[in-house]
Amino acid sequence: MRVDLSNITDEAYLVKCCKNNEPAAQHFLYNKYVEDMMILCLRYVPDAEDAKEVLMDGFLSFFKNMEQFSYQGAGSVKAWLKKIMVNCCLMNLRKRKMTFAGSGDLVQYEDTATGEDVLDNLAAKDIMKQLQQLPDGYRMVFNLYAFEGLNHREIAELLQITEGTSKSQLHRARAMLKERIGETRVNG
Question: Does domain 5-95 have CATH number 3.30.1490.20?
């Protein structure tokens, strides 16, 4: 099957071509999503070289397992790719023996959000830098909760921790981000 370049923006067609191992379709999907997926990887894996490795592993897994993918309409390709990338990031951090600092399961934490007015005044690169500097456990839980929309039960199952640990890691991540963002505003 030869890729018809007039249909190259039709995701259903691209998926079909990728399932037939068509390099042009794979190249197009890669280029379409590589930037977003690199940003996702950097949120979880702060070292740029490690993040690039995770990105490549994720795309390799994406194309290798394309036969298992069922196109469900607009956005389904990106959603599936995003799920693969998050799993690759988690595997990478497990290999590095990710730790959960000061996991206090019995302590109740109030839900402290970083003020949106504070975030509005920071550039995306400044926010990313602050996220990357969080300890592994804080960063993982924060990303899974804030960006992936998982609840504490889901995070606990995925990371093999307790819900209390998930809650404490999120609380501490938010507090640390709030403090660091405040310092950035004052010193910036």
Answer: no
